[in-house]
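This entry is listed below:
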Amino acid sequence: MTGCRIVIIAKAPLAGFCKTRLIPALGRDGAAALALRMLRHTVHTALSAELGSVEVCAAPSATHPLWAALQLPAALNWSNQGEGDLGERMARAAERTLASGDHLLLIGSDCPAITALHLRGAASALQRGEASLIPTFDGGYALLGLATMESGLFTDMPWSTADVANITLARLARAGMPVHIGPTLHDIDEPSDLAQLPVGLGGVDSLTAQDFHDV
């Protein structure tokens, strides 16, 4: 059975650097604190799926001192996102992973609704020769699973629009790639999304002094 690597595309939870669209509702520190909480939740979920290695593909750099200060699990692997737009950075992560012989589950850190069960289902689809995609209600996607790299999959994409998932599915269809589509989930990008924070993660009003201290 081919191994499966989960790659988390993540920005360091620095005030003013991550989740900037949440700043009007939470302020710079609050948005960063929530980003940290979602990142920790995502890492825990990815590791608990027990599918194989879990990699944080980090910005601005995997060597930024904040990452060490957060004391994330030692089992994580680390890489740099590098330069370019989101598509270029995701393409590099995908190419590197697939060239190693592993299957790929590419996720962000802002969809706490993703569970280990979702990840396992997406990995199973890859073993069946299918790609996998979990769409989000805003028209993007929270997970993309690939067993092979499709040329142009990430290029000239109108990121952060309602067309991303549909364009991605159309490109996969043109490449002859069947796709397992998971349930549509909420990601947390805009102030209106804050109502969708899972109960287990805690609402924004439960952010603690320790959350703010860590960022």
